[in-house]
Amino acid sequence: MDSTVWALLLSAVSISFIHTASGPDHYLPFIVISKSKKWSGMKTAILTVVCGFGHVFSSLILGFIGGFLGWQLNKISWFQDIRGNFSGWALLIFGGVYLIYGLIQAVRNKPHKHFDVMGDDVYVYEHNHSEVVMPQKRIKVTPLVLFMIFVMGPSEPLIPLLFYSGVKHSMSEIAVLVTSFTATTVLTMLGMVLLGRYGYSTLFNTEKLERYMGVVSGAVVTVCGVGMVFLGW
Question: What is the pTM (predicted TM-score) of this model?
Answer without folding.
Answer: 0.79
